[in-house]
TrEMBL record:
Keywords: Membrane, Signal, Transmembrane, Transmembrane helix. This is Sugar transporter ERD6-like 6. It is found in: Membrane. PANTHER family: GH07001P-RELATED, PTHR48021. SUPFAM superfamilies: MFS general substrate transporter. It comes from Papilio xuthus (Asian swallowtail butterfly). Residues 8-447 form the Major facilitator superfamily (MFS) profile domain. GO terms for cellular component: membrane. Pfam families: Sugar_tr (PF00083). The chain crosses the membrane at residues 52-73, 80-98, 104-125, 137-161, 167-186, 255-272, 295-317, 324-347, 353-377, 389-409, 421-443. Residues 1-24 form the signal peptide.
Amino acid sequence: MHRSRTVRQLFILSGLTICGLSDGFIFGQMSGMVDALRGKEIGISLNDSDISWIASTVNATCIFGFVLAGIVTEKVGRRGAIAVLSVPMILTWIMLYFATSFTIFVASRIIVGISYGGVILLTYITTAEYTTAKQRAMCLTIVTAVGPSIGTALGHVLSILMHWRTVALMGIIPTTLSAVLPFFWVESPSWLASKGRFEESMAAYRELHGRSESTELELKLLVNFEKIKQNEFTPNKKLYFSMLEKIILALKQAYFWKISLLVIVITVYRVAGGRILYNTLAITMLHEMTGNSNILMSTLLVDGFIVTGSIIPVFLFRKMKTRTILFLFGLTSNIVLIVLSACLYYIPKENMYYAWVCSLLLAFYFIIAYSGPYAVLEILLSELYPLELKSFCTFLYGSFAGFETFLSVKLAPSMFVSMGYHGVFLLNASIVFLCLGYLWYYLPETKGRSLQEIELYFRNGKFDNDLILEQCESDDLVA
């Protein structure tokens, strides 16, 4: 029984990791494609403005993916929503293979943006809901960092070794797996509980985690907390509040605004830290920073450090607290970015060591940033949303994050020209310092806490789940 449960957990984790790899492959392939298009590929007539729109459209249209994800997951659950939203991405890879005009390029980016936006947020939410408090940090790191970084690295390297159209066809493989594998998972226990399907929720939870003392306590907290909230939403004990009524009720609560400000600061940090920008334009940046057209070794170096940096947190979360990792590695990576900015400004390009110094510093930045802040921020985005408002919060904060990322990628080329790479890196580092300052004062330690305990913290100002358990002491869980 234990062995079959472990196999089931690994199968779900592998499927979610493939979803992350597929999402990362989008940006890795696009980085190589953008660099090739800037080189004026034969048969394609595009100017710098066209290419800028192609590179940034994904991050703008993902906003609509957040809306669609919220609607679909309310109807068909977490696993069904991931499968449904992965299907259009298969079409976009085929579109890219045959694309020769600006219209087709942008159309493919619009569709993939909508699908990507929905899938990436659903993988964050689903991973958090499928895991226990002890497993969550490690599993989220694998799904949201290791998977996407391997996908991005594959996209970068293959785009250097092969034509970007061939790489686009290869993207069909992980995307198809993302659409098929979810049908073999059990449904999310948290989603089932939020729909009042408590017996199914308990059965799914025990199928995933068994019946230990700690998992039974988490399950009891999940079910009882959802029962209390649904009783609050249903004065006659039969009819549920509409989503609009839940939102209005949440807007009147101080805890909702505490969470909102934290999530906004986290998304600003992700953008300023270059989580998407550097992956999208990595090949072009290395080409322009080093002045070397043969960038395979530099790309392997940087991507190798990214993948390594993504794997390191899997071990760090076992030994260190979340806040310690965030602030220690966040400050260190920011200092490296400032040093890189200084080197770009003061060291002449003619220097024989210039290219390798810049490449190494960028690589060190990635390994430190992926080891700490990137991993922690992804985890926090999956932990902070209240369960009954996850669809709304996914849309609201995801739209804000998508708009931020769109602006960063769209404006990056012109900013690199007007401010230089050194100026952009220095500006980003300054914004990150401000974000770290806010998080230092207002971010709680979430390691080892269940999603319900974290929500209770923002409601009550402390980690204390005794109140919920006392209120439902008479409720017996159905076997």
